[in-house]
Amino acid sequence: MSASASPVSTGSPGIPHLDVDPFAMNFFADPYPTHEVLREAGPVVYLDKWNVYGVARYAEVHAVLNDPATFCSSRGVGLSDFKKETPWRPPSLILEADPPAHTRTRAVLSKVLSPTVMKQVRDRFTAAAEERVDALIDKRSFDAVADLAEAYPLSIFPDALGLKPEGREHLIPYASVVFNAFGPPNQLRQEAIERSAPHQAYVAEQCQRENLAPGGFGACIHAHVDEGAITATEAPLLVRSLLSAGLDTTVNGIGAAIYCLARFPDQWQRLRDDLSLARGAFEEAVRFESPVQTFFRTTTREVELSGATIGEGEKVLMFLAAANRDPRRWDKPDSYDITRRTSGHVGFGSGIHMCVGQLVARLEGEVMLTALAKRIAKIEITGEPKRRFNNTLRGLDSLPVTITPA
């Protein structure tokens, strides 16, 4: 992949133009060298392939995330500009909305997934993690993606949400469609949307009030309709946000943590010696692997960012993963260290749009890593890990491992 960094006349003067496609298969296979090119070229770059601006350093990514008035989400957080084209599905009331509308709907989800609620479900989530580990100890060799990173969240999250038992096989494919659709009109996006009808139909149906079990997160969202906080048409869309936000981030986050701990046995030993590091081990995996790689914003006015002028109505691509390994912000960014102070990483975003499912993801990651570290002495990778390519997410499709019980 060539990466020329010569200022060209289109775009803003003085901004380096790069011949980089961050949505190409070879980029997905190994994004790190290109991340470095993007960071080193300048604080703001221009990607000729898709005619968008890009920010890959921590300071600029953080600045864009924390200025929603200038860098808006309502025109889409993918390449597609909702002001110029019709979204492929009704926009998310959380992800693809700006204040004040976003503030109102976000408040509902924050109540439904509050720290207090997480305390209430913690024992249930812990028991499910321990049950999963028991089953894996019996197997010894298994796929850490299918049998652990996916199986655990699927065993607990849909129940917590109040979904019916049948049809849950649509959940992971649905989330993968959503995240592929943020990308450009490449093969990944086209194929995902073409295949999406049954997954979309299932999700739309499950988000209706009558299909959600009482007491679950979904029913709690609908209860806010009765208080007048949201409307009856908004409630199903908020349940939908939870379905896409609450599962894939967790699946890829847990997968990333297992992949890291298997590759760095010294860190696994550290965790086994001190179980209180489980939250840190998960958090550092989210920084190190960045399950959510990129998001777009659209400028609402002409703005100057680190000396670069960007016009109104321009798409700005934030490389969250590159920011999470920016040596300007992190000491030894390319090493996985479970004792690192990871606070401030942008793996869950930052600012008003910070991942609404993050408390669920953190809880599941922490209890699963604790359950594993208690019972397992060694995790070895015993086959070729396979990547699952997606326009927005970075995760594994398969990770064959063998474990040695403690």
From TrEMBL:
Keyword Secreted: no
Keywords from the UniProt entry: Heme, Iron, Metal-binding, Monooxygenase, Oxidoreductase
Record CDD domains: CYP199A2-like
PROSITE patterns given in the database record: CYTOCHROME_P450
Needed cofactors: heme
Molecular functions per Gene Ontology: heme binding; iron ion binding; monooxygenase activity; oxidoreductase activity, acting on paired donors, with incorporation or reduction of molecular oxygen
UniProt cross-references to InterPro entries, sorted A to Z: Cyt_P450, Cyt_P450_B, Cyt_P450_CS, Cyt_P450_sf
Superkingdom assignment: Bacteria
Family membership: Belongs to the cytochrome P450 family.
Name of the protein in question: Cytochrome
Species, as recorded: Bradyrhizobium neotropicale
